[in-house]
Amino acid sequence: MKLDVDVLRYLSKDDFRVLTAVEMGMRNHEIVPAELIERIACLKHGGTYKVMKNLLKYKLLHHDSSKYDGFRLTYLGYDFLAIKTLVNRGVFSSVGRQIGVGKESDIFEVANEDGTIMAMKLHRLGRTSFRAVKNKRDYLRHRSSFNWLYLSRLAALKEFAFMKALGEHGFPVPTAVDCNRHCVIMSLVQGYPLVQVKQIQNPETVFENIIGLVIRLAEHGLIHCDFNEFNIMVWKDTLTVLSFQVVVYCRFSCALNLNFDDSHL
After folding, report:
1. Does 106 participate in catalysis according to the annotation?
2. What digits encode the pLDDT tens for the residues 167-190?
3. Which top EC class applies here (predicted)?
4. Does domain 1-73 have CATH number 1.10.10.10?
């Protein structure tokens, strides 16, 4: 589903109030009953159903009447809640072009009032190509129920925390700026993904830096389980590592024997 931020211009406070009500209802319901949304939103003059109809038009909600009359947030609706919150915080003021598409995320350029360009990563777990996430990741722990929006939020929180900690310890990672729901704001990295680089002036140096980085992470008890040519940015001889929602911590040397889902080194 394409992110069209122009729709934000047409959304009122009541629209966001209802979106938030659906989000709150989804804590305990896969499909939130319409009556519950109306009670949570508590609009002064009623009109919740009219607002929901408007949100359906922009595909921010999905209607399901198979068991009862209910609604759930779409990823687009979740995007708008996160973007609205971050804009209100003053983190950024405009959204630019899309600069990346992953198997579980979309990445856009954003800019603040000073004109500083940053990257906005929207986690989108649950895509058809990545349905086994609940078995391969530690997000759920002992939880027996989940929805993809909640898992995406956990992935974003984990990535932001690891990126912030690694940056503070001098690892070559983007600067973690802010996080809300499934959205992570980070500095824009100069360079190209290693997979797009056809020729490197000093390949031996780059290779040694990559292996050295893997060892350095392992010495801190960290294993990046998606350490591959898609998640390494190269600029001259400088490397920057991306995608930290798949980092695992292990205090034992057996961590080195973990099977990397996508690693090709």
Report:
1. no
2. 999 999 999 999 999 999 999 999
3. transferase
4. yes
